[in-house]
Amino acid sequence: MTKLIIIILSFCSLNSMAQLKVLDSINIENRSSEFSVSPDGKHIAIAQHKKRELLIIELISKEIVKRIPLRNKWDNVVQYSPDGKFLAIASLKNGIDIYDANNFKLKHSLKETKDNVNRLIFYKTDMLASESWNGQIRTWDLKSGSQVNEFLLPENPRAYRMTYNPISKEFVIIAAFKKSYTSKLYLLSENLIVNRIKPFNFTGTCKYLKETDAIYVSPTYKHVIHKLDSSLNIIRDLNKHDKWVNDFVFTPDGKKIISSAADNTLRIFKGNKQLDKLDLRYQIVQIHILSENKFLCSGIMGPKNASKIYVVEY
Length: 314
Known about the structure:
Strand content: over 45%
Helix content: under 10%
CATH architecture of the largest domain: 7 Propeller
Number of domains: 2
Structural class: mainly beta
């Protein structure tokens, strides 16, 4: 096993009511962005682009316990199944590979898709949904390794983000139209039938958060997060960054929101009140809640083509 370099960092609080504090950080050898945490919270899976390998990192010891060679240079979207049995890896060029998460043997190679896959969601234990940049949405049965349904978003938009609402059993997708700088929010059933479409006069990202049972959108140029009501109308602005928002999550109690942006900051809010801000050298692109007082986040640094995973206390 290869020991990772652990850097212990501390930051001065902006005030006496500090909410954010970096506990550990893990250096990733090459540029990587998205990661997935195993359901038991013991391991992190993250792909390294240039080295074409998937790293399995033990969270407590910070050791690389497995290096899995990848077939494609741009395999970078990784997702554990809810039961921890499968590990799905999507490529920007060559589809999706499904591995056994216990022995890391390749189970299925979903070659039917040649799209640039940018999002994976396990919406059931053995059912996977994929989103491609060209607006192609597909669902897959991992028992057989076969495609179940597919749907192409109309008008040729660029699909930015797909999330899943387990209560309504709908996929929530936001897709942008480059020429008009507008977007549409699509709600699709599990059979990929369109239930609702909501146009917006901005481009951005979206997310369904189970803690509040609501959909949120973040416009690229406004640098805020909007909460939507059941009719998909904007009812509230939650926070504001200095640049576009990359990711956001609610704390498990649903009372605070943690967000990251292209201004290299993490911020925590309660209502519209900012409780704390953490300035980092890396642009944080993903946040994952670990427990009642800790979360993981991954950051990238463009000039050095480097990545880092932070363990943050809140």
